[in-house]
Amino acid sequence: MDILLIGGLWLDGSAWDHVVPALAALGHRPVPLTLPGQGDGDASATLDDQVAAVLAAVDAAPGEVLVVGHSAACTLAWLAADARPDRVAGAVLVGGFPAGDGKPYADFFEVRDGVMPFPGWEPFDGPDSVDLDDDAKRAFAAAAIPVPAGVATGVVRLTDERRFAVPVLVVCPEYTADQAKGWIEGGDVPELAGVEHLDYADLDSGHWPMLTRPVELARVIAGAARG
């Protein structure tokens, strides 16, 4: 199965470099995406541009696809399920939850000069970064790609309720499956409360398991691909 891999804020397709061979070894065709504005130098890119890039990758696949979104890009994976419910066989949401219709995509940090730069490690102290040493943190910060304002502040638009029939796997790295289930059942994630086939997987890592636990993450993703 083709598996689309969409990194979160400040990342390009290279974030999946160690997940790709692990998925290929398990018999899948991983397709890491570099999104407009997050790897091509286009600071004018918008959320619509990123959605269009994801849908183009879905449409280019020879059959059904599994869409994997990390962090903020969980919303992009969910937008793909909304726009292509007949082509998306499942969505894997790693370390994040989809924003609802009418909500901003990722308006989390200060926008300066038209972009939202990586804010440093202070907001991610604790479980998010527990498995990153100082060298890894320095390398991440040096490579972080500022997110265009048109992406970060873009408004999410969901239109097709058939998305709720797309199976979803919530991968829980810096929090537990029990915590995620409590948030969803408690109404904090309205989009996932309506999903018909919702599963959870714990993964012992920080917020960026593609960097620190790539083989383990690949196995979890492959499990979702098997249904």
Automatic annotation (TrEMBL):
<dbReference type="Pfam" id="PF12697">
    <property type="entry name" value="Abhydrolase_6"/>
</dbReference>
<dbReference type="InterPro" id="IPR000073">
    <property type="entry name" value="AB_hydrolase_1"/>
</dbReference>
<protein>
    <submittedName>
        <fullName>Pimeloyl-ACP methyl ester carboxylesterase</fullName>
    </submittedName>
</protein>
<dbReference type="InterPro" id="IPR029058">
    <property type="entry name" value="AB_hydrolase_fold"/>
</dbReference>
<dbReference type="GO" id="GO:0003824">
    <property type="term" value="F:catalytic activity"/>
</dbReference>
<feature type="domain" description="AB hydrolase-1">
    <location>
        <begin position="3"/>
        <end position="219"/>
    </location>
</feature>
